[in-house]
Amino acid sequence: MTGRRAGLAGSLLMIVLVAVNLRPAIAAIGPVLTEISDEFRLSGAAAGALTTVPLVFFGSYGLMAAFLRRAPRGETLLVSAMALLVAGMALRLLDAPFPLFAGSLVAGIAISIGNIAMPGIIKRDHPSRITTVTAVYTVAVTAGASLSSGLVVPLEHIFDSTWRLPLGLLVIPAALAGLLWVPRARRAAHAARSAPPAAAPRGMAALVWRSGLAWHVTVFMGLQSLLAYVVLGWLPTICQDRGMDEAPAGYVLALSAAVQAVGSLTVPLLARRTRDQRPLVLTTATLSLAGFTGVTWAPIESVWVWAVVLGLGQGVGFATALSFIGLRAHNAHVAAQLSGMAQGIGYLIAALGPLAVGALHDATGGWSVPIAGVLIVCAVMTVPGLSAGRNRSVGAPAGPPAGVINTEISGHIPN
Questions:
Q1: How far apart are CA 230 and CA 313, in angstroms?
Q2: What one-character-per-residue DSSP string does 112-136 give?
Q3: To 10 degrees, the CA torsion angle through 155, 160, 162, 165?
Q4: Radius of gyration of the chain from Cα atoms?
Q5: Which of 56, 272, 278, 397 has its Cα between 20 and 30 A from that of 162?
Q6: DSSP code of 329?
């Protein structure tokens, strides 16, 4: 292996180390949510809030970053994100409701910082391999969610412990990832002192926030994320209420999360064979409709099949939503602003999902009404998605160039 290839492989490994930590703090809660609710006597709405609180703050840094003229270096942001994540996960292990929710809030802020910083690092360090690296990144994110949701209950049983031990173990990989990024953060800080990064052009934030296309990207990002976090927060509970034991219900979530990786990897392949991304939006909505319907009303023995369908749909949706940030941005400055807007507002929209589902479940005593609402979201999602899927870009001169058929995911429309 040449020195250049070794460097690229090392950089990719560093990205993966952070990516696998960006969902377990949320995904691991679902399989033990009933246990936590019983210990602290939480209502359905309060239990939903436990997964909603971090989601509300998933977009917090994105909203702030969109208006920063000189954002911190990506390496510094990732070290800070991992440090905050460790603190938040440790805080919620304390034996009281307040630190449980406060720790979830801190974890949400930490994940928000990582969410926003990582796409910029990928674009900067792997400009000729954006599609491949973005696919690896999304797979690592979903793999982290899958492993954590699938192992939390077995680890609890192996060590004959409460839910605190498996959730506490999540601190270790987050701390390791943060420590490994420290040397790079120091080198980046030294480089920034020698050559400060250029500021974004004035008026860029206003241009993006006034763009209808940017809002379509944002709403699609929010609605597909809402569906994903309903699954993370409530799929194990739905399975348990339908008669499954706690551990198998966790495995259902783990399977769905694992299959998301397959869905994400298909997006670069499918995108090369289509004129634009609208077929990907329709695929996301169709698979999501079928998956939610199946896990709720089909015979419980078939839930594994529907978990796969649901996972495929959400994998395609996640990768498509991330790709829109680059594809619909005219240049790097627009991409930075659009990333903050789409993820900032998008995750606020997503945060409504688990909370609304929990409240509707409390009000009706069943899952038919909450999931009917989720199916409506699946259908509504196609409206902004089909608009965002057309080959246009925010900040580009009027009219796309003739002959543009398709572009690489996470790149931008040529002009």
A1: 14
A2: HHHHHHHHHHHHHH-TT-HHHHHHH
A3: -50
A4: 21
A5: 56
A6: B
Query: What pTM value is reported for the model?
Result: 0.76
Sign of CA dihedral 118, 123, 126, 131: positive
Nearest Cα to Cα of residue 52 among 367, 352, 346, 253: 352
Q: What is d(CA 302, CA 120) in angstroms, rounded to the nearest whole number? A: 41
- 415 residues of the chain, pLDDT tens digit each: 566 677 677 888 999 999 999 989 988 887 888 889 889 888 877 887 787 677 777 777 877 766 666 667 788 889 999 999 999 999 999 988 899 999 998 998 999 899 888 877 877 787 667 667 877 888 888 888 878 878 898 999 899 889 999 999 999 999 999 999 999 989 877 776 766 555 556 667 778 888 899 999 999 999 999 998 899 778 988 999 998 988 888 889 888 888 888 888 888 778 778 888 899 999 999 999 999 999 999 999 999 999 999 999 999 998 889 888 877 877 766 777 788 888 888 888 887 888 899 889 989 989 999 999 999 999 999 999 999 999 888 877 654 443 333 444 433 333 2
CB burial class (10 A; 0-12, 13-18, 19+) of residue 209? middle
Listed residue (319, 322, 315) closest to 342, CA to CA: 322
Contact indicator for 329, 265 with CB cutoff of 8 Å: no
Task: Give me the half-sphere count of Cα atoms (radius 13 Å) on the Cβ side of residue 375.
Answer: 15
Retrieve residue 55's tokens.
């989601």
Q: What are the DSSP calls for 375-406, one per residue?
A: HHHHHHTHHHHHHHTSS--BTPPSSPPTT---
For 166-218, list the strands marked E by DSSP: none
Q: Which residues pair with 394 in a beta bridge?
A: 329
Report yes or no: 81 and 73 within 8 Å, Cβ to Cβ. no
CATH class, range 13-189+199-388? mainly alpha
How far apart CA 374 and CA 390 sit, in angstroms, is 25
The token pair at 41 is: 């006597």
